[in-house]
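Chapter summary example.
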Amino acid sequence: MMSRLTRLVLYLNGAQLLFAGVSLIFLPSWFFATFAPFEPFNRHFMGDAGTFALPWGLAFLLVARDPAKHFTLFSLATLASALHALNHLLGDILIERLPLTTSLTDNVSIWLFTLPLIVVYGWQWRQTRRA
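The structure predicted for these 131 residues follows.
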């Protein structure tokens, strides 16, 4: 059961990052207006973000095929996602001075992908240690 859930979470994270990567590279103005209206708009920076998101999405799809076999890549991809979520949280609170509740609601899509990922990663980590 947990193996199926792990794979589902990995496939969803992979698809989301592939979508973001392609959108950031080929439709940066649309992505900016729809998902990330952080002024000022910078097409070059959006493209750079896309070139990082795209391979991470592919990495998640690879890991989903066999999480135990690709555990190191699973670890790195999970760390990247967790750092991304933490960046939003700390940036909102420490720099923007937003309340925690505002930060969490403004970034709900990030947390909806990251928290389940961390949970299934922890489960896989325990399985790997037992083997």
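To summarize the output: The chain has six helices and no strands.
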